[in-house]
Fold this protein.
Amino acid sequence: MDVYGEIFILEKIPQAAPRLDYLNIRCGARLIAILGILFGVTISTMLLIKDRKNLTPATLILVVFLSIFVIVTIMFVLASVLLLMAALDENPDLMSYYIWLSIVYLCIQLVLAIIIPLLLIVEGRYPPVIALIWMVIVMIVGLGWTHFISVVSSYRLSLLSANQF
């Protein structure tokens, strides 16, 4: 078989349809919110039941912030997955929507990553060195996710510029 015959066989393969026709990923924001809130409330309930004998106001505030952190982390991961699905579908509108959702969730996550260790230090449960190490680790992970968002954003811009020509 020659090269032209192989190309002819490849041309017979039908073009791939968009992968997300069967799924309306605009409903992703609701899915993100519902799953994130359920998971966060479950974790906070487990923490409160386990440690209810030693409950102080600082512990209660810490549990609330940890629950919000878990909720936002789950929401961020789901938004990133939906962002990747929108990128695979080459849909620039949905990509920009999920890029902004991911950026908002990442900012909330990074703010909480600073507040939670400070509360742990104030409460006296951990030495400052451990809290600082945790902050650095979360910031490095945040930088990795920021790089992922910027790569997808660049891909979105290249799709938009390709559509203009």
